[in-house]
Design a protein that fits this description.
mainly alpha; about 0% strand
Length: about 80
């Protein structure tokens, strides 16, 4: 039988998953919109796009690390009896 704390932990992990997916979508959308700004600077196009790709990758990696830590906190004692 799941305790209230386990249900709350599972629910928070599900909500964090939805938030992470939404955040990655916002990052992708902002990257797509900002790439039009880079088109105005043809001499610095590679630098501009490379910088944006790096920022999106950093934010995605940070989000996945936070999610993995939350998942570990949620499931670390899942199989142990109370």
């Amino acid at each position: 039988m799941m305790t209230v704390w386990r249900k709350l932990a599972a629910l928070s992990l599900v909500l964090l998953t939805f938030l992470l997916v939404g955040w990655l979508f916002v990052c992708w959308l902002s990257y797509s919109m900002a790439s039009f700004t880079c088109m105005d600077l043809p001499e610095d196009l590679a630098t501009c796009i490379g910088g944006m790709q790096r920022q999106v990758a950093i934010q995605a990696a940070a989000g996945v690390l936070v999610w993995m830590f939350a998942a570990w906190l949620t499931f670390r004692n899942w199989g142990k009896s109370e």
